[in-house]
Design goal:
The structure holds two protein chains of two kinds.
Chain A (H helix, E strand, L loop, with lengths): L2 H37 L5 H5 L13 H32 L3 H15 L2 H13 L7 H25 L3 H9 L4 H12 L1 H16 L26 H10 L3 H37 L1
Helix pairs in contact in A: 1-11, 3-6, 3-9, 4-6, 5-6, 6-9, 7-8, 9-11, 10-11
Chain B lengths: L2 H12 L1 H7 L1 H29 L1 H7 L2 H4 L3 E2 L4 E2 L2 H32 L2 H16 L2 H28 L14 H25 L3 H9 L4 H12 L1 H17 L2 H6 L17 H8 L6 H40 L1
Antiparallel strand pairs in B: 1-2
Helix pairs in contact in B: 3-15, 4-15, 6-9, 6-12, 7-9, 8-9, 9-12, 10-11, 12-15, 14-15
The chains are: A mainly alpha, B mainly alpha.
Chain lengths: 281, 324
Amino acid sequence: MNLAWRKTVNVIMLSLTGLCAAIAVSALFFILGYLVYHGGSDVDWNFFTKLPTPVGESGGGMANAIVGSGKLLLIAALIGVPIGLLGGIYLAEFGGKTVPFIVRYTADMLNGIPSIVIGIFAYAVAVMPVRHFSTVAGGFALGIMMIPIVLRSTEEFLNGVPRAMREGAMALGASKWRTISSVVLPAARNAIMTAILLSLARVAGETAPLLFTAFGNRFWSPGWGQPTASLPVMIFTYAVGPYDDWHRQAWAAGLVLLGLVLLVNILVRTVLARGISAQRS
Amino acid sequence: MATAPANVEAAGVRSSSRSLFNGDGVARIVTLIFALLTVVITGMIVVQLWVLSAESRHAFGWRFFWSQEWDPVFNKFGALPFIYGTLVTSAVGMLIAVPLGLGAAIFLAELAPRGISDFLTFLIDLLAAVPSVIYGLIGVFILVPLMRTEIQPCLKRTLGFLPLFTGPAYGIGFLTAGIVLAVMIVPFIISVSREVLLAVPREQREASLALGATRWEATWKAVVPYARTGIMGSVFLALARALGETMAVTMVVGNNPRIAASLLGPGYSIASVLANEFSEATGSMYVSALIELGLVLFLLTFIINGLARLLIVVTTQRGSGMAK
Protein backbone atom coordinates (compact mmCIF):
# COMPACT_ATOMS: atom_id res chain seq x y z
CA MET A 1 0.00 0.00 0.00
CA ASN A 2 1.90 3.04 -1.16
CA LEU A 3 1.03 6.56 -0.16
CA ALA A 4 -0.33 7.68 -3.52
CA TRP A 5 -2.78 4.77 -3.55
CA ARG A 6 -3.89 5.44 0.03
CA LYS A 7 -4.43 9.10 -0.79
CA THR A 8 -6.48 8.17 -3.84
CA VAL A 9 -8.64 5.86 -1.74
CA ASN A 10 -9.00 8.64 0.79
CA VAL A 11 -10.25 11.13 -1.78
CA ILE A 12 -12.57 8.64 -3.47
CA MET A 13 -14.19 7.40 -0.26
CA LEU A 14 -14.58 10.86 1.22
CA SER A 15 -16.23 12.12 -1.95
CA LEU A 16 -18.50 9.08 -1.90
CA THR A 17 -19.69 9.98 1.62
CA GLY A 18 -20.41 13.49 0.36
CA LEU A 19 -22.34 12.00 -2.53
CA CYS A 20 -24.40 9.89 -0.08
CA ALA A 21 -25.29 13.00 1.90
CA ALA A 22 -26.16 14.87 -1.29
CA ILE A 23 -28.44 12.04 -2.47
CA ALA A 24 -30.23 11.84 0.88
CA VAL A 25 -30.81 15.59 1.09
CA SER A 26 -31.82 15.91 -2.55
CA ALA A 27 -34.63 13.37 -1.95
CA LEU A 28 -36.42 16.08 0.03
CA PHE A 29 -36.18 18.57 -2.83
CA PHE A 30 -37.26 15.97 -5.39
CA ILE A 31 -40.36 15.19 -3.35
CA LEU A 32 -41.19 18.84 -2.81
CA GLY A 33 -40.46 19.71 -6.44
CA TYR A 34 -42.65 16.96 -7.88
CA LEU A 35 -45.53 17.86 -5.56
CA VAL A 36 -45.37 21.53 -6.52
CA TYR A 37 -45.00 20.66 -10.21
CA HIS A 38 -47.94 18.24 -10.33
CA GLY A 39 -50.17 19.62 -7.60
CA GLY A 40 -49.45 23.32 -7.56
CA SER A 41 -51.97 24.32 -10.21
CA ASP A 42 -54.82 22.41 -8.54
CA VAL A 43 -54.45 23.99 -5.14
CA ASP A 44 -56.96 26.83 -5.44
CA TRP A 45 -59.85 28.30 -3.53
CA ASN A 46 -62.17 25.44 -4.59
CA PHE A 47 -59.80 22.87 -3.14
CA PHE A 48 -60.30 24.30 0.34
CA THR A 49 -64.02 25.10 0.12
CA LYS A 50 -65.77 22.49 -2.07
CA LEU A 51 -66.74 18.86 -1.57
CA PRO A 52 -65.33 16.19 -3.90
CA THR A 53 -67.34 15.98 -7.11
CA PRO A 54 -68.72 12.70 -8.50
CA VAL A 55 -66.41 10.84 -10.88
CA GLY A 56 -66.33 12.49 -14.30
CA GLU A 57 -67.17 15.98 -13.15
CA SER A 58 -64.15 18.20 -12.91
CA GLY A 59 -63.56 20.75 -10.18
CA GLY A 60 -64.46 20.10 -6.59
CA GLY A 61 -62.21 20.12 -3.60
CA MET A 62 -61.43 18.40 -0.34
CA ALA A 63 -63.00 20.70 2.21
CA ASN A 64 -64.53 17.74 4.05
CA ALA A 65 -61.17 15.97 4.24
CA ILE A 66 -59.44 19.06 5.61
CA VAL A 67 -62.09 19.55 8.28
CA GLY A 68 -62.05 15.79 8.95
CA SER A 69 -58.29 15.81 9.51
CA GLY A 70 -58.75 18.75 11.88
CA LYS A 71 -61.38 16.89 13.89
CA LEU A 72 -59.24 13.75 14.04
CA LEU A 73 -56.26 15.77 15.27
CA LEU A 74 -58.40 17.45 17.92
CA ILE A 75 -59.48 14.08 19.34
CA ALA A 76 -55.93 12.80 19.06
CA ALA A 77 -54.66 15.78 21.05
CA LEU A 78 -57.38 15.32 23.69
CA ILE A 79 -56.13 11.76 24.24
CA GLY A 80 -52.41 12.05 23.62
CA VAL A 81 -51.58 15.33 25.34
CA PRO A 82 -53.05 14.72 28.84
CA ILE A 83 -51.70 11.18 29.10
CA GLY A 84 -48.32 12.11 27.66
CA LEU A 85 -47.94 15.35 29.59
CA LEU A 86 -49.10 14.17 33.02
CA GLY A 87 -47.34 10.83 32.60
CA GLY A 88 -44.17 12.70 31.66
CA ILE A 89 -44.52 14.90 34.76
CA TYR A 90 -44.77 11.77 36.87
CA LEU A 91 -41.66 10.25 35.29
CA ALA A 92 -39.58 13.39 35.72
CA GLU A 93 -40.81 14.71 39.07
CA PHE A 94 -42.39 11.98 41.18
CA GLY A 95 -41.05 8.72 39.84
CA GLY A 96 -39.22 6.17 41.93
CA LYS A 97 -37.31 3.40 40.20
CA THR A 98 -39.57 0.53 39.17
CA VAL A 99 -42.66 2.33 37.88
CA PRO A 100 -40.79 4.82 35.65
CA PHE A 101 -38.71 1.98 34.23
CA ILE A 102 -41.84 0.04 33.28
CA VAL A 103 -43.58 3.14 31.89
CA ARG A 104 -40.53 4.17 29.86
CA TYR A 105 -40.09 0.68 28.53
CA THR A 106 -43.71 0.31 27.45
CA ALA A 107 -43.74 3.83 25.96
CA ASP A 108 -40.76 2.93 23.77
CA MET A 109 -42.51 -0.31 22.87
CA LEU A 110 -45.70 1.59 21.99
CA ASN A 111 -43.66 3.98 19.86
CA GLY A 112 -42.30 1.05 17.88
CA ILE A 113 -45.64 -0.63 17.17
CA PRO A 114 -46.46 -0.25 13.45
CA SER A 115 -49.28 2.25 12.91
CA ILE A 116 -51.42 -0.32 11.12
CA VAL A 117 -51.39 -2.51 14.24
CA ILE A 118 -52.56 0.48 16.30
CA GLY A 119 -55.34 0.76 13.72
CA ILE A 120 -56.38 -2.86 14.39
CA PHE A 121 -56.49 -2.11 18.11
CA ALA A 122 -58.63 1.01 17.61
CA TYR A 123 -60.88 -1.04 15.35
CA ALA A 124 -61.26 -3.71 18.03
CA VAL A 125 -61.95 -1.21 20.82
CA ALA A 126 -63.89 1.58 19.13
CA VAL A 127 -65.39 0.17 15.92
CA MET A 128 -66.36 -3.46 16.62
CA PRO A 129 -68.58 -2.71 19.66
CA VAL A 130 -70.65 -0.06 17.82
CA ARG A 131 -70.42 -1.79 14.43
CA HIS A 132 -69.61 1.28 12.36
CA PHE A 133 -66.58 3.41 11.51
CA SER A 134 -66.34 6.74 13.31
CA THR A 135 -64.32 9.93 13.67
CA VAL A 136 -63.77 9.13 17.34
CA ALA A 137 -62.19 5.76 16.52
CA GLY A 138 -59.76 7.41 14.07
CA GLY A 139 -58.84 10.12 16.56
CA PHE A 140 -58.36 7.46 19.22
CA ALA A 141 -55.85 5.60 17.03
CA LEU A 142 -53.91 8.80 16.33
CA GLY A 143 -54.05 9.78 20.01
CA ILE A 144 -52.43 6.50 21.04
CA MET A 145 -49.62 7.19 18.59
CA MET A 146 -49.06 10.61 20.16
CA ILE A 147 -48.72 9.34 23.73
CA PRO A 148 -45.16 7.97 23.66
CA ILE A 149 -43.79 10.99 21.77
CA VAL A 150 -45.31 13.54 24.15
CA LEU A 151 -44.49 11.43 27.22
CA ARG A 152 -40.80 10.94 26.53
CA SER A 153 -40.16 14.50 25.38
CA THR A 154 -42.00 16.00 28.37
CA GLU A 155 -39.85 13.89 30.68
CA GLU A 156 -36.68 14.87 28.86
CA PHE A 157 -37.46 18.60 28.88
CA LEU A 158 -38.53 18.61 32.54
CA ASN A 159 -35.28 16.89 33.45
CA GLY A 160 -33.52 19.69 31.58
CA VAL A 161 -34.91 22.36 33.92
CA PRO A 162 -32.07 23.36 36.27
CA ARG A 163 -32.28 21.99 39.83
CA ALA A 164 -31.57 25.44 41.22
CA MET A 165 -34.95 26.68 40.00
CA ARG A 166 -36.75 23.90 41.89
CA GLU A 167 -34.70 24.49 45.01
CA GLY A 168 -35.35 28.20 44.85
CA ALA A 169 -39.09 27.65 44.80
CA MET A 170 -38.92 25.04 47.56
CA ALA A 171 -36.81 27.40 49.69
CA LEU A 172 -39.57 30.00 49.41
CA GLY A 173 -41.89 27.45 50.98
CA ALA A 174 -43.70 26.25 47.87
CA SER A 175 -45.07 22.72 47.94
CA LYS A 176 -43.82 20.23 45.40
CA TRP A 177 -46.85 20.52 43.14
CA ARG A 178 -46.76 24.32 43.43
CA THR A 179 -43.10 24.20 42.38
CA ILE A 180 -43.89 22.01 39.39
CA SER A 181 -46.92 23.96 38.22
CA SER A 182 -45.62 27.48 38.61
CA VAL A 183 -41.86 27.11 38.16
CA VAL A 184 -40.82 23.92 36.39
CA LEU A 185 -43.61 23.63 33.82
CA PRO A 186 -43.44 27.30 32.70
CA ALA A 187 -39.69 26.95 32.29
CA ALA A 188 -40.14 23.96 29.98
CA ARG A 189 -43.29 25.29 28.33
CA ASN A 190 -41.84 26.16 24.93
CA ALA A 191 -40.00 22.88 24.65
CA ILE A 192 -43.10 20.88 25.54
CA MET A 193 -45.20 22.89 23.08
CA THR A 194 -42.62 22.04 20.43
CA ALA A 195 -42.92 18.35 21.19
CA ILE A 196 -46.72 18.44 21.10
CA LEU A 197 -46.80 20.31 17.78
CA LEU A 198 -44.24 17.95 16.24
CA SER A 199 -46.20 14.91 17.40
CA LEU A 200 -49.37 16.43 15.89
CA ALA A 201 -47.54 17.01 12.62
CA ARG A 202 -46.37 13.42 12.69
CA VAL A 203 -49.82 11.86 13.22
CA ALA A 204 -51.45 14.31 10.79
CA GLY A 205 -49.86 12.38 7.93
CA GLU A 206 -50.71 8.92 9.28
CA THR A 207 -52.90 6.98 6.89
CA ALA A 208 -52.74 3.34 7.88
CA PRO A 209 -54.53 3.55 11.25
CA LEU A 210 -57.38 5.57 9.69
CA LEU A 211 -58.23 3.09 6.92
CA PHE A 212 -60.50 1.02 9.13
CA THR A 213 -61.31 3.46 11.94
CA ALA A 214 -62.24 6.85 10.44
CA PHE A 215 -62.61 5.13 7.05
CA GLY A 216 -63.63 7.77 4.51
CA ASN A 217 -66.59 9.85 3.49
CA ARG A 218 -67.49 11.60 0.27
CA PHE A 219 -69.58 14.15 2.15
CA TRP A 220 -69.43 16.22 5.29
CA SER A 221 -69.23 14.06 8.38
CA PRO A 222 -71.93 15.16 10.84
CA GLY A 223 -70.93 15.02 14.49
CA TRP A 224 -68.25 12.68 15.80
CA GLY A 225 -69.84 9.25 15.53
CA GLN A 226 -69.77 8.94 11.74
CA PRO A 227 -66.96 7.99 9.35
CA THR A 228 -65.02 10.99 8.11
CA ALA A 229 -62.76 11.82 5.22
CA SER A 230 -59.18 12.84 6.00
CA LEU A 231 -56.41 14.24 3.82
CA PRO A 232 -54.02 11.24 4.00
CA VAL A 233 -56.72 8.66 3.26
CA MET A 234 -58.02 10.82 0.39
CA ILE A 235 -54.52 10.95 -1.09
CA PHE A 236 -54.27 7.16 -0.89
CA THR A 237 -57.73 6.49 -2.36
CA TYR A 238 -57.31 9.03 -5.15
CA ALA A 239 -53.76 7.97 -6.02
CA VAL A 240 -54.61 4.29 -6.46
CA GLY A 241 -57.90 5.09 -8.21
CA PRO A 242 -58.15 4.88 -12.00
CA TYR A 243 -59.18 8.45 -12.92
CA ASP A 244 -56.89 11.24 -14.09
CA ASP A 245 -59.00 13.76 -12.27
CA TRP A 246 -58.47 11.88 -9.01
CA HIS A 247 -54.73 11.75 -9.61
CA ARG A 248 -54.59 15.52 -10.00
CA GLN A 249 -56.55 15.97 -6.77
CA ALA A 250 -54.23 13.49 -5.03
CA TRP A 251 -51.20 15.57 -6.04
CA ALA A 252 -52.90 18.74 -4.81
CA ALA A 253 -53.85 17.12 -1.50
CA GLY A 254 -50.32 15.77 -1.15
CA LEU A 255 -48.90 19.24 -1.65
CA VAL A 256 -51.25 20.72 0.95
CA LEU A 257 -50.51 17.95 3.48
CA LEU A 258 -46.75 18.09 3.00
CA GLY A 259 -46.84 21.89 3.05
CA LEU A 260 -48.62 21.89 6.41
CA VAL A 261 -46.36 19.22 7.92
CA LEU A 262 -43.15 20.89 6.74
CA LEU A 263 -44.37 24.36 7.77
CA VAL A 264 -45.09 23.18 11.32
CA ASN A 265 -41.74 21.40 11.46
CA ILE A 266 -39.75 24.37 10.18
CA LEU A 267 -41.56 26.97 12.30
CA VAL A 268 -41.38 24.90 15.45
CA ARG A 269 -37.77 23.88 14.99
CA THR A 270 -36.54 27.39 14.18
CA VAL A 271 -38.76 29.77 16.18
CA LEU A 272 -39.66 27.77 19.28
CA ALA A 273 -36.42 25.85 19.45
CA ARG A 274 -34.46 29.11 19.35
CA GLY A 275 -36.43 30.24 22.39
CA ILE A 276 -35.44 27.05 24.17
CA SER A 277 -31.73 27.39 23.58
CA ALA A 278 -31.88 31.04 24.63
CA GLN A 279 -33.57 30.01 27.84
CA ARG A 280 -31.03 27.33 28.57
CA SER A 281 -28.05 29.57 27.98
CA MET B 1 -30.43 13.26 37.12
CA ALA B 2 -30.09 9.81 38.61
CA THR B 3 -30.06 11.04 42.21
CA ALA B 4 -33.10 13.29 41.94
CA PRO B 5 -35.80 10.58 42.06
CA ALA B 6 -34.25 8.95 45.16
CA ASN B 7 -34.29 12.27 47.05
CA VAL B 8 -37.81 12.96 45.94
CA GLU B 9 -38.94 9.57 47.16
CA ALA B 10 -37.31 10.02 50.56
CA ALA B 11 -38.95 13.41 50.88
CA GLY B 12 -42.23 11.87 49.83
CA VAL B 13 -42.11 9.28 52.62
CA ARG B 14 -41.22 11.89 55.28
CA SER B 15 -44.03 14.23 54.41
CA SER B 16 -46.67 11.74 53.33
CA SER B 17 -49.04 12.78 56.12
CA ARG B 18 -48.80 16.45 55.29
CA SER B 19 -48.68 16.05 51.54
CA LEU B 20 -52.39 15.31 51.12
CA PHE B 21 -53.20 18.77 52.44
CA ASN B 22 -50.98 20.74 50.12
CA GLY B 23 -51.97 18.77 47.04
CA ASP B 24 -48.72 16.90 46.55
CA GLY B 25 -50.29 13.54 47.25
CA VAL B 26 -53.14 14.21 44.87
CA ALA B 27 -50.79 15.41 42.13
CA ARG B 28 -48.59 12.36 42.63
CA ILE B 29 -51.51 9.95 42.35
CA VAL B 30 -53.12 11.72 39.37
CA THR B 31 -49.90 11.85 37.35
CA LEU B 32 -49.17 8.24 38.32
CA ILE B 33 -52.55 7.18 36.94
CA PHE B 34 -51.86 8.90 33.63
CA ALA B 35 -48.39 7.37 33.45
CA LEU B 36 -49.86 3.94 34.08
CA LEU B 37 -52.49 4.52 31.36
CA THR B 38 -49.62 4.19 28.88
CA VAL B 39 -48.84 0.75 30.27
CA VAL B 40 -52.53 -0.22 30.32
CA ILE B 41 -53.06 0.80 26.67
CA THR B 42 -49.95 -1.03 25.49
CA GLY B 43 -51.03 -4.09 27.45
CA MET B 44 -54.51 -3.90 25.96
CA ILE B 45 -53.05 -3.81 22.44
CA VAL B 46 -51.16 -7.05 23.07
CA VAL B 47 -54.16 -8.71 24.76
CA GLN B 48 -56.58 -7.68 22.00
CA LEU B 49 -54.28 -8.96 19.26
CA TRP B 50 -53.90 -12.26 21.09
CA VAL B 51 -57.58 -12.74 21.95
CA LEU B 52 -58.99 -11.66 18.58
CA SER B 53 -56.63 -13.89 16.64
CA ALA B 54 -57.65 -16.93 18.73
CA GLU B 55 -60.00 -18.36 16.11
CA SER B 56 -57.33 -18.30 13.42
CA ARG B 57 -54.58 -19.52 15.77
CA HIS B 58 -56.66 -22.53 16.83
CA ALA B 59 -57.76 -23.37 13.32
CA PHE B 60 -54.37 -23.20 11.62
CA GLY B 61 -51.79 -23.54 14.39
CA TRP B 62 -48.19 -23.31 13.16
CA ARG B 63 -49.35 -24.20 9.65
CA PHE B 64 -50.35 -20.53 9.36
CA PHE B 65 -46.68 -19.65 8.95
CA TRP B 66 -45.82 -21.92 6.08
CA SER B 67 -49.05 -22.24 4.18
CA GLN B 68 -49.18 -20.22 0.96
CA GLU B 69 -52.90 -20.39 0.54
CA TRP B 70 -54.92 -17.21 1.04
CA ASP B 71 -58.50 -17.95 0.15
CA PRO B 72 -61.19 -15.98 1.98
CA VAL B 73 -63.97 -17.84 0.16
CA PHE B 74 -63.00 -21.24 1.59
CA ASN B 75 -61.55 -19.81 4.81
CA LYS B 76 -58.05 -21.05 4.08
CA PHE B 77 -55.40 -18.67 5.35
CA GLY B 78 -51.62 -18.90 5.25
CA ALA B 79 -49.18 -16.10 5.98
CA LEU B 80 -46.06 -17.20 4.13
CA PRO B 81 -46.31 -14.95 1.02
CA PHE B 82 -46.94 -11.92 3.21
CA ILE B 83 -44.11 -12.67 5.63
CA TYR B 84 -41.86 -13.31 2.62
CA GLY B 85 -42.85 -10.00 1.02
CA THR B 86 -42.31 -8.06 4.23
CA LEU B 87 -38.85 -9.57 4.69
CA VAL B 88 -37.78 -9.18 1.05
CA THR B 89 -38.90 -5.56 0.66
CA SER B 90 -37.25 -4.66 3.98
CA ALA B 91 -34.05 -6.47 2.98
CA VAL B 92 -33.87 -4.59 -0.33
CA GLY B 93 -34.54 -1.34 1.53
CA MET B 94 -31.80 -2.04 4.05
CA LEU B 95 -29.29 -3.03 1.35
CA ILE B 96 -29.69 0.42 -0.19
CA ALA B 97 -30.29 2.48 2.94
CA VAL B 98 -27.48 1.21 5.19
CA PRO B 99 -24.51 2.14 2.94
CA LEU B 100 -26.21 5.37 1.86
CA GLY B 101 -27.13 6.36 5.42
CA LEU B 102 -23.77 5.40 6.89
CA GLY B 103 -21.92 7.29 4.17
CA ALA B 104 -24.02 10.39 4.69
CA ALA B 105 -23.61 10.13 8.48
CA ILE B 106 -19.84 9.90 8.12
CA PHE B 107 -19.84 12.98 5.90
CA LEU B 108 -22.04 14.92 8.34
CA ALA B 109 -20.13 13.89 11.45
CA GLU B 110 -16.54 13.81 10.23
CA LEU B 111 -16.11 16.04 7.20
CA ALA B 112 -18.70 18.77 6.96
CA PRO B 113 -18.12 21.96 8.97
CA ARG B 114 -20.47 22.13 11.96
CA GLY B 115 -22.78 24.78 10.51
CA ILE B 116 -23.29 22.99 7.21
CA SER B 117 -23.66 19.67 8.99
CA ASP B 118 -26.36 21.07 11.27
CA PHE B 119 -28.23 22.58 8.34
CA LEU B 120 -28.12 19.36 6.32
CA THR B 121 -29.23 17.38 9.38
CA PHE B 122 -32.16 19.78 9.70
CA LEU B 123 -33.13 18.95 6.10
CA ILE B 124 -32.74 15.24 6.81
CA ASP B 125 -35.03 15.62 9.85
CA LEU B 126 -37.58 17.25 7.56
CA LEU B 127 -37.27 14.29 5.22
CA ALA B 128 -38.09 12.03 8.17
CA ALA B 129 -41.25 14.09 8.76
CA VAL B 130 -42.63 13.50 5.26
CA PRO B 131 -45.80 11.36 5.64
CA SER B 132 -45.53 7.87 4.21
CA VAL B 133 -48.53 8.35 1.92
CA ILE B 134 -46.56 11.11 0.16
CA TYR B 135 -43.74 8.63 -0.50
CA GLY B 136 -46.40 6.33 -1.88
CA LEU B 137 -47.70 9.09 -4.15
CA ILE B 138 -44.24 9.82 -5.53
CA GLY B 139 -43.66 6.07 -5.81
CA VAL B 140 -46.82 5.42 -7.83
CA PHE B 141 -46.56 8.31 -10.26
CA ILE B 142 -42.81 8.93 -10.60
CA LEU B 143 -40.82 5.87 -9.57
CA VAL B 144 -43.06 3.11 -11.00
CA PRO B 145 -43.06 4.48 -14.58
CA LEU B 146 -39.33 5.13 -14.31
CA MET B 147 -38.73 1.57 -13.12
CA ARG B 148 -40.88 0.12 -15.90
CA THR B 149 -39.35 2.02 -18.78
CA GLU B 150 -35.73 2.57 -17.72
CA ILE B 151 -34.36 0.88 -14.63
CA GLN B 152 -35.88 -2.60 -14.82
CA PRO B 153 -35.11 -3.16 -18.54
CA CYS B 154 -31.58 -1.94 -17.84
CA LEU B 155 -31.22 -4.35 -14.90
CA LYS B 156 -32.48 -7.19 -17.07
CA ARG B 157 -29.97 -6.38 -19.79
CA THR B 158 -27.00 -6.19 -17.47
CA LEU B 159 -27.84 -8.55 -14.61
CA GLY B 160 -30.53 -10.65 -16.27
CA PHE B 161 -28.50 -13.84 -15.80
CA LEU B 162 -29.32 -13.65 -12.06
CA PRO B 163 -32.71 -15.11 -11.10
CA LEU B 164 -33.25 -11.92 -9.09
CA PHE B 165 -33.77 -9.84 -12.21
CA THR B 166 -35.94 -11.93 -14.50
CA GLY B 167 -39.50 -11.74 -15.69
CA PRO B 168 -41.47 -8.90 -17.25
CA ALA B 169 -40.88 -5.33 -16.08
CA TYR B 170 -44.12 -4.26 -14.45
CA GLY B 171 -42.68 -1.26 -12.66
CA ILE B 172 -44.34 -2.28 -9.41
CA GLY B 173 -42.93 -5.03 -7.21
CA PHE B 174 -40.45 -5.96 -4.49
CA LEU B 175 -37.58 -3.88 -5.89
CA THR B 176 -39.65 -0.70 -6.26
CA ALA B 177 -41.08 -1.11 -2.75
CA GLY B 178 -37.57 -1.68 -1.42
CA ILE B 179 -36.28 1.51 -3.05
CA VAL B 180 -39.14 3.59 -1.60
CA LEU B 181 -38.52 2.01 1.82
CA ALA B 182 -34.83 2.87 1.53
CA VAL B 183 -35.56 6.57 1.03
CA MET B 184 -37.99 6.48 3.94
CA ILE B 185 -35.63 4.89 6.48
CA VAL B 186 -32.41 6.60 5.44
CA PRO B 187 -33.15 9.68 7.62
CA PHE B 188 -33.38 7.49 10.74
CA ILE B 189 -30.06 5.80 10.02
CA ILE B 190 -28.39 9.14 9.29
CA SER B 191 -29.57 11.06 12.33
CA VAL B 192 -28.90 8.30 14.88
CA SER B 193 -25.55 7.29 13.32
CA ARG B 194 -24.43 10.91 13.15
CA GLU B 195 -25.15 11.35 16.86
CA VAL B 196 -23.24 8.19 17.66
CA LEU B 197 -20.27 9.20 15.48
CA LEU B 198 -20.17 12.68 17.01
CA ALA B 199 -19.99 11.06 20.45
CA VAL B 200 -16.76 9.23 19.59
CA PRO B 201 -13.91 10.84 21.60
CA ARG B 202 -11.51 13.11 19.69
CA GLU B 203 -8.51 11.08 20.87
CA GLN B 204 -9.72 8.17 18.78
CA ARG B 205 -9.30 10.25 15.60
CA GLU B 206 -6.20 12.12 16.65
CA ALA B 207 -4.33 8.98 17.63
CA SER B 208 -4.77 7.34 14.25
CA LEU B 209 -4.07 10.58 12.35
CA ALA B 210 -0.89 10.96 14.39
CA LEU B 211 0.15 7.46 13.31
CA GLY B 212 -0.02 8.66 9.72
CA ALA B 213 -3.44 7.44 8.72
CA THR B 214 -5.33 9.33 6.04
CA ARG B 215 -8.60 10.98 6.99
CA TRP B 216 -10.57 8.07 5.53
CA GLU B 217 -8.45 5.43 7.25
CA ALA B 218 -8.87 7.19 10.58
CA THR B 219 -12.61 7.34 10.07
CA TRP B 220 -13.07 3.82 8.79
CA LYS B 221 -10.61 1.98 11.00
CA ALA B 222 -10.80 3.95 14.25
CA VAL B 223 -13.99 5.99 14.48
CA VAL B 224 -16.57 3.72 12.83
CA PRO B 225 -15.52 0.55 14.72
CA TYR B 226 -15.73 2.52 17.97
CA ALA B 227 -19.31 3.52 17.16
CA ARG B 228 -20.19 0.12 15.67
CA THR B 229 -22.75 -0.95 18.26
CA GLY B 230 -24.63 2.34 18.11
CA ILE B 231 -24.69 2.23 14.33
CA MET B 232 -26.07 -1.32 14.50
CA GLY B 233 -28.74 0.06 16.83
CA SER B 234 -29.74 2.69 14.29
CA VAL B 235 -29.85 0.02 11.59
CA PHE B 236 -32.20 -2.15 13.66
CA LEU B 237 -34.41 0.84 14.44
CA ALA B 238 -34.66 1.53 10.72
CA LEU B 239 -35.37 -2.15 10.05
CA ALA B 240 -38.29 -2.11 12.49
CA ARG B 241 -39.66 0.95 10.66
CA ALA B 242 -39.29 -0.78 7.31
CA LEU B 243 -41.05 -3.96 8.47
CA GLY B 244 -44.06 -2.04 9.75
CA GLU B 245 -44.28 0.52 6.96
CA THR B 246 -47.69 0.33 5.35
CA MET B 247 -48.86 2.97 2.91
CA ALA B 248 -45.86 3.49 0.66
CA VAL B 249 -45.34 -0.26 0.28
CA THR B 250 -49.03 -0.90 -0.36
CA MET B 251 -49.02 1.61 -3.18
CA VAL B 252 -46.05 0.19 -5.09
CA VAL B 253 -45.58 -3.47 -4.15
CA GLY B 254 -48.24 -4.80 -6.52
CA ASN B 255 -50.49 -6.51 -3.96
CA ASN B 256 -50.20 -10.03 -5.27
CA PRO B 257 -49.49 -12.80 -2.70
CA ARG B 258 -46.64 -14.48 -4.53
CA ILE B 259 -43.31 -16.00 -3.67
CA ALA B 260 -40.75 -15.76 -6.43
CA ALA B 261 -37.03 -15.34 -6.77
CA SER B 262 -37.36 -12.33 -9.05
CA LEU B 263 -37.43 -8.91 -7.42
CA LEU B 264 -39.08 -7.37 -10.45
CA GLY B 265 -42.46 -9.02 -10.03
CA PRO B 266 -45.32 -7.94 -7.80
CA GLY B 267 -45.62 -9.18 -4.22
CA TYR B 268 -47.41 -8.39 -1.02
CA SER B 269 -46.51 -7.58 2.57
CA ILE B 270 -48.18 -8.11 5.95
CA ALA B 271 -48.92 -4.42 6.44
CA SER B 272 -50.28 -4.02 2.90
CA VAL B 273 -52.67 -6.93 3.11
CA LEU B 274 -54.01 -5.46 6.36
CA ALA B 275 -54.41 -2.05 4.71
CA ASN B 276 -56.18 -3.49 1.67
CA GLU B 277 -58.38 -6.20 3.10
CA PHE B 278 -59.13 -5.43 6.73
CA SER B 279 -61.97 -2.96 6.22
CA GLU B 280 -63.66 -5.26 3.70
CA ALA B 281 -63.10 -8.57 5.48
CA THR B 282 -66.28 -10.49 6.09
CA GLY B 283 -66.58 -13.53 8.31
CA SER B 284 -64.95 -13.92 11.68
CA MET B 285 -62.27 -16.35 10.47
CA TYR B 286 -61.10 -13.88 7.80
CA VAL B 287 -60.87 -11.02 10.32
CA SER B 288 -59.19 -13.31 12.83
CA ALA B 289 -56.57 -14.40 10.28
CA LEU B 290 -55.83 -10.77 9.42
CA ILE B 291 -55.46 -9.92 13.10
CA GLU B 292 -53.07 -12.85 13.49
CA LEU B 293 -51.01 -11.26 10.70
CA GLY B 294 -51.07 -8.06 12.77
CA LEU B 295 -49.83 -10.07 15.75
CA VAL B 296 -46.97 -11.50 13.65
CA LEU B 297 -46.01 -7.99 12.51
CA PHE B 298 -46.17 -6.74 16.10
CA LEU B 299 -43.89 -9.52 17.34
CA LEU B 300 -41.40 -8.98 14.49
CA THR B 301 -41.07 -5.24 15.15
CA PHE B 302 -41.08 -5.79 18.92
CA ILE B 303 -38.08 -8.11 18.75
CA ILE B 304 -36.15 -5.89 16.33
CA ASN B 305 -36.88 -2.75 18.36
CA GLY B 306 -35.80 -4.52 21.55
CA LEU B 307 -32.48 -5.47 19.94
CA ALA B 308 -32.02 -1.90 18.69
CA ARG B 309 -32.56 -0.36 22.12
CA LEU B 310 -30.29 -2.89 23.76
CA LEU B 311 -27.48 -2.05 21.32
CA ILE B 312 -27.94 1.70 21.77
CA VAL B 313 -28.01 1.40 25.57
CA VAL B 314 -24.84 -0.72 25.50
CA THR B 315 -23.03 1.89 23.35
CA THR B 316 -24.08 4.91 25.35
CA GLN B 317 -23.10 3.22 28.63
CA ARG B 318 -19.75 2.13 27.25
CA GLY B 319 -19.25 5.60 25.81
CA SER B 320 -19.97 7.37 29.09
CA GLY B 321 -17.86 4.83 30.99
CA MET B 322 -14.87 5.63 28.82
CA ALA B 323 -15.46 9.36 29.06
CA LYS B 324 -15.03 9.12 32.83
